[in-house]
């Protein structure tokens, strides 16, 4: 079987381009910290309000003893709860998200924070936000008629502002 040399060159170019694309995707995932989910954690979506971790008084921002911060968010009925979240810069953040009803997505533009929230499962994303400012938290999976109105506010403040917020001047525990 004879293959024309010109066909061999074009086949090599096509394979080279495909190899380049795969290399760029893998390098981008490696350098931007994009990882496939490593564990599956299930939850009963019908009884979230009774769950110890996602009860109404437990959702929101929680600072651990080691300085890491866990943010628990419930998605459902065209909203993310709690509505307004304040976070510090340059701090390891762990977002733990659940859905009450249907598949939702969550995305913070200009960050690596993006995942699907599937009913019955806990979605977990770890990130660090480097720049202070206002960030929208958007639903990026069509979830029904009110999808366009499903968003949340995240305010990122400096570490100094965060410390001042957590330990006001008159607080005796700060001394």
Structure, described:
By secondary structure, this protein is α+β, with helices and mostly antiparallel strands. It folds into 2 domains: 34 residues; 122 residues, Immunoglobulin-like. 20% of the residues lie in helices and 29% in strands. It has 2 helices and 10 strands. Strands 1, 2, 3, 5 and 8 form a 5-stranded mixed beta sheet that branches. The chain has a 3-stranded mixed beta sheet with strand order 4-10-9.
Quickly describe the structure.
This protein has 175 residues and is of the alpha+beta class. It is built from two helices and ten strands; from the N terminus they run αββββββββββα. Strands 1, 2, 3, 5 and 8 form a five-stranded mixed beta sheet that branches. A three-stranded mixed beta sheet has the order 4-10-9. Strands 6-7 form a two-stranded antiparallel sheet.
Key attributes of the depicted protein:
5-stranded mixed beta sheet; Immunoglobulin-like; alpha+beta; 2 helices; 2 domains
